[in-house]
Amino acid sequence: MPKSGLIRGRVSFGAQEEYRVLLQGSGESEAEPSGALRTYGELPAVGDWVRVRLASGFCLIEEVEARRTAFIRRAAGRVYASQCVAANIDVCFVVGGLDGDFNLRRIERYLVLAWESGARPVVVLNKEDVCADVGAAVSAVRSIAGGAEVVAMSAHRSAEPLSPWLWPGATAALLGSSGAGKSTIANALTGGSLATREVRQRDSRGRHTTSASMLVELPGRAWLIDTPGMRELGLVASETSLDLGFPEIAALAAQCRFGDCRHGQEPGCAVRQALEDGRIPADRWVSYAKLQREAQHHALEADPWAQRAEKQKWKAIHKSAKRMYRERGR
After folding, report:
1. Which of 16, 34, 206, 231 lies 20 to 30 Å (CA to CA) from residue 2?
2. How many whole angstroms from its chain centre is CA 46?
3. Strands 7-15 and 120-126
4. Is-above-0.70 flag for pTM?
C-alpha cells in the first residue's frame, strides 16, 4: 500500500544513483533514493513511475511502482546482476547504422532483448544517406527481424519515418551501439541540441556521446528515452523471447521428432535437416545457438537452486558413465 503524503512522478534522468523526477503539476526536481529503498528495494530506472517525498530543494524516492515493460540487460562484470536500461516503454527503436558498423548479429541480440522487454520492437536503420545499397541492407535485416518492423532513414534529413510509432502518450526508447546516431535521431524528434560527435573513420564506432539515459517529451506529446551506447549487451532473456527473435528456427524445432531435441545427432531433427538443405543460413544458426547458451547460462547464474540442480544432474550423469565403464571392463 502506498505511503501517505507521497507525490507521484516519473524518473527523467538517472546516472550513478543521481536522478531527476518529473512531478505531476510541479515540473522537474532533483531526487535521490531513500535509505529504505536502497536497502530493501530496487533502484529506479529512467521511465519508472515513482512515489516521492518532497524535501528541501529535492525529493526522496520512497517507492518504485511495478513496471509494465522494461528493457533489461546483464550488467557488465563477472558477478551476475541485471540492469534496467529503460522502463515502461511501448516501443523499442533498435537503431543500427548503415555505415561501416552495420552488423546483423548485433541487431539479432538487441531484438531478443527487445522482445523480452514486452515492448514493440522496431529496427531503425539510420544513415541511409551513406549507404550504397539501402534496399539490400533492409532486405537482409528483414530476413532476421522476425515480426519486428524495419525502417530506413537519415536522421540528418528527417525523423518523420518514426512518427507512426509515436502516438500521444506513448513512450519509445532509442537503443543501440555507440555511433548509430541515437542522439541525432533524438535531436530530430525534439528539435533540441543533444550533444553529438563524429564516429571514428576506421570502424564507424561512436564514443559514448550520451552518458546517461534521459526521458524527454516530444512535440506530439509522446515520450522518448535516449540511452547511452552499449558496447556490452549481456543477454537476460527467456526461451520465449529467443523464439520470437528466431521464429523460423522455433517453427522447425516444433516439428522435431523429440520434444527435447537438442538439434545435434537426434533422429528426426527438423532443424538439422533445414541446415543441411540450406533453408537456415549457417551464420543464423550459429547466432541462435550462441544466444541460447548465453540465456541458459545467465538463467542458472540468476537462480542458485537451478544452478545446484544442474550440477547435481551432471554429477549423476558422470557417476553413471563411470559405473558403466567399470562394468564393461570386467
Report:
1. 16
2. 14
3. unpaired
4. yes
